[in-house]
Amino acid sequence: MIISDDGAILTSLHVVEGATAIDVTFADGTSAAAIIVASQPENDIAVIQPDRLPDPVVAAVLGNPGALSEGTRLLWWQSTGLYGSMSSGVISGFNRAFTPELSNRTIHGLIQIDAAVNPGNSGGPLLNRHGRWSAL
After folding, report:
1. Does 134 participate in catalysis according to the annotation?
2. CA-CA distance, 1 to 113, in Å (whole number)?
3. What is the pLDDT of residues 35-84, one digit of tens each?
4. What is the CATH number of domain 65-127?
5. Does the predicted model carry a pTM greater than 0.70?
């Protein structure tokens, strides 16, 4: 998800960590190489910067995560690299913790959702019904 006008992209760290090359394809078909410019391993997030951008670049409109509550309807954007898809659901809990397999890191403060999230579809945004990014 593009988070700034300079094309910075927020994703899950485990998606890009250890990669020898990162390739980004935008919705208009523009492809670019990217590098990791920031990361927070404790939260499994990374910011990557592509070396080329589509025209125009449109950053996500951020929602207010403080306005979320259990039962809030949501959309989960997923991409398998070949196509994108969405699933819908509701927020079913807050402040969850998760320790990934083969990891000694526990991620805290997670939002639990009941939307289908398929293996290999990490890194996509959690959107509210207005298409605004809602999760931090």
Report:
1. no
2. 19
3. 999 999 888 889 999 999 999 998 888 777 777 889 888 887 766 555 66
4. 2.40.10.10
5. yes
